[in-house]
Design a protein that fits this description.
This protein is α/β, with parallel strands linked by helices. The protein has helices spanning 24-33, 46-55, 64-70, 83-92, 115-119, 138-142, 157-166, 179-206, 212-230, 238-241, 244-257, 262-278, 284-294, 309-313, and strands at residues 14-18, 37-42, 73-76, 101-104, 123-129, 147-151, 170-173. The protein is built from 14 helices and seven strands. Residues 5-129 form the Putative oxidoreductase/dehydrogenase Rossmann-like domain.
């Protein structure tokens, strides 16, 4: 049964997944809990097949064209760079059916990337869950209260909102032109956080801490909570205080024990110092010595940017 674009709540739909990565099976499982019916999934790798079997037991694994044939709502959950070619291929081969809801989950793209399918009669939606996925059943639980970056044609806004709410999420409307900036913001906060935490745990292990995760958990949880509540006012630590000597000691130790972390430490410290200065947290009289320490350059000799601060601005 094809949904009507005017329905505030989609009818029960046959759901298909093209690309059984970490996201698609979780969203399909969540839609199943809401009363929809997963009917087909495509996947090639062993990991994809395992995810499909765990999250969508009994749902047949078939080629993408057959997913399109069987489903009223198709989730296109492939990597961002693969999405335009996939959509073009589905449209050119006649796989798209008029009235079929076609949903991609890319943060980067809005509905424009679905234009080839839209011209073939598909109803395009961009529903990006602002969540990190593991590819396991825990992802379905995490969707409760998760924000979705939603972009949709005006006539499909109610249908998009209904689907997100049925998955337990909260719709946040993102303009088509703002999608790349929206996605960059999420990557900056979430993806880089993982890198920072992993580096921090490695350094703590080198320092002899036996359970770095247990040490960091309360600290990082409090820091995140404070940052979400207070923004830059939550800044603490030696950079915000202007403790140039402590920061210099940090840099010296990192050069000795973990040189690969120095560039990241310096870049984040410079940004922190700039924000602390702008918000009146770092006293200007303390900033000069601190910024001198932070201008010591990259960790690796012979780095192409080692000639001066101009190179740092390009990274």
């Amino acid at each position: 049964m094809n949904p009507s674009a005017a329905e505030p709540r989609p009818a029960r739909l046959a759901v298909g997944v093209v690309g059984a990565g970490r996201v698609g099976p979780a969203l399909a499982a969540s839609l199943q809990l809401a009363g929809h019916r997963p009917v087909a999934v495509s996947g090639v790798s062993d990991a994809s097949l395992r995810r499909a079997a765990e999250l969508l037991p009994g749902v047949p694994v078939v080629p993408p064209a057959q997913v399109m044939e069987r489903a009223d709502l198709v989730l296109l959950t492939v990597p961002d760079d693969a999405l335009p070619g996939l959509v073009q291929g589905l449209a050119e081969t006649g796989a798209v059916r008029p009235g079929q809801l076609l949903v991609h989950t890319s943060g980067r793209y809005g509905v424009g990337v679905l234009d080839p399918a839209r011209r073939a009669g598909a109803l395009p939606l961009a529903l990006h869950p602002a969540m990190t996925f593991t590819g396991t059943s825990v992802d379905v639980q995490r969707l409760a209260g998760c924000s979705f970056g939603v972009t949709a044609p005006e006539e499909l806004r109610l249908a998009a909102e209904a689907l997100v709410i049925e998955m337990g999420g909260e719709p946040e409307w993102i303009a088509e032109a703002a999608r790349p900036l929206y996605h960059a913001a999420l990557a900056l906060g979430a993806n880089h956080l993982v890198t920072l935490v992993a580096q921090s745990m490695e350094l703590l292990r080198q320092a002899g801490v036996t359970a770095p995760d247990r040490m960091l958990g309360p600290l990082l949880g409090a820091a995140l909570d404070n940052a979400l509540r207070s923004g830059d006012a939550a800044l603490t630590g030696p950079v915000a205080r202007g403790d140039a000597g402590t920061v210099a000691a940090h840099v010296a130790e990192l050069r000795k024990h973990a040189p690969a972390t120095v560039d990241g430490y310096l870049a984040m410290a410079r940004t922190t110092a700039d924000r602390a200065l702008a918000h009146g947290l770092l006293k200007p009289e303390l900033a000069e010595d601190l910024l001198g320490v932070l201008a010591t350059g990259p960790a690796t000799e012979g780095h192409p940017d080692s000639g001066g601060p101009e190179g740092d601005d390009d990274r």
